[in-house]
Amino acid sequence: MVYLVGLLSIIFLALAALVVSRMAAVVRNVNGPVEEGRIGMSNRINGALFLVFFALAMIGFVVSFMSAKQYFLPEAGSIHGRRTDTLFWVSMSIVTAAFVVTNALLFFFAYKYQYREGKRASYYPENHKLELIWTVVPAVVMAVMVFTGWRAWRDIMSEAPQDAQVIEIVGKQFNWITRYPGIDDNKLGAYNYKLTDSNNEVGVDFSDEASFDDFVNSQGELHIPVGKPVLLKIRARDVLHSVFIPHLRVKMDAVPGMPTRFWFVADKTTEEMRNITGNPEFNYELACTEVCGRGHFSMRAKIVVEDEASWKKWCSDQKPLLTTYPEYASRIPANLKAKAAKYLPTETAAPSDSTTASTQQGGASSASVSLR
Amino acid sequence: MATVDTSLVHDAHTHEHDHHEPQSFWRTYVFSEDHKTIAKQYLITGILWAVIGISMSIIFRLQLGFPKMSMGWLKPILGEWINESNQLDPDFYLALVTMHGTIMVFFVLTAGLSGTFSNFLIPLQVGARDMASGFLNMLSYWFFFIAGVIMFFSIFIETGPAAGGWVVYPPLSALPQAHKGSQLGMTLWLVSMALFIVSQLLGGINYITTVINLRTRGMTFSKLPLTIWAFFLTAVLGLISFPVLLSAALLLIFDRSFGTSFYLSEIYINGEALPNVGGSPILFQHLFWFLGHPEVYIVMLPALGITSEIIATNSRKPIFGYRAMIASMLGIAFLAFIVWAHHMFVTGMNPFLGSIFMFLTLIIAVPSAVKAFNYITTLWRGNIRFTPAMLFSIGLVSFFISGGVTGLILGNSALDIQLHDTYFVVAHFHLVMGASSAFGLLAGVYHWFPKMFGRMMNDKLGYIHFWLTFAGIYCVFFPMHYTGIAGFPRRYYAFTSYEWTKTIFTDLNAFISIAAIVSFGAQFIFLFNFFYSLFRGRKASQNPWKSNTLEWTTPIEPGHGNWPGEIPAVYRWPYDYSKPGAADDFIPQTVPYSQTPESNLPHENELIAFEKEIEEAENLNDQFRQPH
């Protein structure tokens, strides 16, 4: 790097000297009156420079590509990811070929057909056959590219399989919050953004019995079972965010007021990825890719992909939100109290409290009615 | 034969008009209604904005390339935005990114490019005394000027300018509590943009009216130079799409200031649940990109038009496929309106809609490819003179191709999942629309400088400027494809928060920043050349590039009304270069076929019969002939 910078600065200095001398010449007007229409040495130099530029640029392209290649499209850990990767490289080869050929022709023609004394350009205003060919050929190539891309898109965006594991992820300034449907009913409970507060960060609505066993990770750490379809239900609490999991080829905006979703199958555990990449520190990471304010660049969440058994164990180690904050029990309607009891510490569920609890509950339920 | 220039100015017609009161300084140079003066005002303002806009990019490139660098030396300019540890404030980083985008897209490449060359060239190339309405034209510039003043002020307010990205997506831009840049800075941004849109509409109506109504005798649409076709279609695009941006901005103003919920729904921020429900942030994105995508072509088409003219002139060849070029511009102009949602594949928009927009998007690549092939074929078997304008035009075609091909990747929604909002996108649009149209602007300045100011710019400085800029821009944007493919997201203040980005490409980012600084430095060669030549450049001759179009038949420094006498009539298309049989290698549009029997093609000999009609026709719209 140091050498590179040194080399660049030498080139730059030389050019600067050249420029300064030119400017001095301009200011002194040493050229005198230039003969109108005289085309001389400069034309030949510029023509040749196009060839030189093309040659250097191609060398630079190949060398830089080879050295950067190791970081391209980091190892994909999802099934659809490998499909789009293949598609990407196929498309990329086609467009790179087009890029090299057309640029080569452009620069070569510029050199080859530069001004020559006494030469006449050929009057060649049109050729319908040629024009037809280069309209149809790109159209066909593009049609094929689009069609394969469309099929991949259709499959990736299709409805998630019935057995997909649902996980909710909520973006806020500036971190992610995840909510799991719980180990008992495996169903996400309802939410209402007006119920959000500093403990109930995603506005879980406890008048829905499905929410009793939901557990929340306010650090956004995401645990995913390997080899099983996972459906991310994506929300945003304040402004736009975007879920980006580079190694799983997942990206979907989080939109306030409009839940979005993305499903995928991660088929390599974090451990496997550590072996494949040879990096013992490797972690799947989740980033934000929709500008969301000051902390946009550091909205990181860690993702752990593990086998189903250890994933299940991790889930059962988590405490439902209701257990962590039993005061929300007051929001549970009377008819569901009994179902919620197993998630609440015994003392709050004690019968001696039932009168106060029921009055509280009455107030809370009318509040939740008014919220709707 | 080619000496038609001033000899067409028949003395018989001079009686009509030369008694204008000499106008005051203010009316001549400041509140001028003359299209040439207004064009120069646009150009100078555009150059000033370009310097500001690119300087901003240099500051954030320093942050990205050298994240540990002490920025204390910027304190005299940036003040509190450089914090105690001499680092750039992350809020101001976003403000810089936002203002760079806004300034470059709207103030430089829309107003600076279209405003300059549509104003300058439309009357001169179609053969008109001035724009259809000089007054509206003046208003157009001054609305732009006020918009610029407001935007400029917003940079200096305490909470900083707008900072939610140039696309200003709500709710971030709608909620002052969400971000510093969403406070007063955002209000000023919206006010400035509303005025800017008014300016664009006034300008656009004028361009369209002038092209349709004020063409001189014989100047049919099939004889228009491609520059005029491009400016015309650009104005049509702007006229249809800018009002939609205005509506988006107005609704955003309502949401910000009057408690409506067009874009806001179910928001909990700073410990408070907002009452807004039922709005949709996606609605804003649809409205924004309904302008935003045509805007790409508003920026691109004038540059392509300018390039067509310059490449044909300096290859000494007719542009290849004149009709195909017009057809592809018409195709692009139409398709530009039905591809906008390809910016929104992963916003949660219905995936079916994504499929539709993917198909439409890749259709628009076909006319763009045709244009590139036609430019290359125009060079083929030419007799090329590398004027600085020609170099920049060839550079434009190269950028247009290099940036264009990656559009096929990004337009493919399946591939866009990974690449959306990464540096791959940044590389793509900076090459295909940023650098290309900036090159169009520079090519235009080098080519029409003699007509604008009656003097020549220095060629050799132009060559150095070109090669440094050309190489520099490739060094800046080509490596960005690499970081994009590696998944680096855009609009990131630093890449240190993630394991997968923090260790790689640090030297590549430094390289990009150095290349950016060198390219920026090279622009000062241009500025020197421009301002020096303005006063001390070699005097221009009547037709320095031996070009066919009408503007070179005016006096070297055209005065009020452009032609001192009758406006010349037009008999042929503008691309009769190197015609077999002709004495010179160019035949201006004003030369009738009856004077060039040696070089006429068979169907052109038949046109001689109609020349009398053209000759005797009256320019009904010649403002000099009307009582006033």
Concise description?
The complex is a heterodimer of chains A (372) and B (628). Chain A is built from 10 helices and 10 strands. Chain A has 372 residues and is of the alpha+beta class.
Please write out the topology.
The complex is a heterodimer of chains A (372) and B (628).
Chain A: H1 2-28, H2 41-68, H3 79-112, H4 128-156, E1 165-172, E2 175-180, E3 215-217, E4 222-225, E5 229-236, E6 241-245, E7 250-254, E8 260-265, H5 270-277, E9 284-288, E10 301-306, H6 308-317, H7 321-324, H8 337-340, H9 346-349, H10 354-371
Parallel strand pairs in A: 1-5, 4-10
Antiparallel strand pairs in A: 1-2, 2-3, 5-8, 6-7, 6-9, 9-10
Helix pairs in contact in A: 2-3, 3-4
Chain B: H1 25-30, H2 35-65, H3 75-78, H4 90-126, H5 134-154, H6 184-213, H7 226-257, E1 268-269, E2 272-273, H8 281-315, H9 322-335, H10 351-379, H11 388-410, H12 413-419, H13 423-453, H14 459-485, H15 499-502, H16 506-536, H17 602-616
Antiparallel strand pairs in B: 1-2
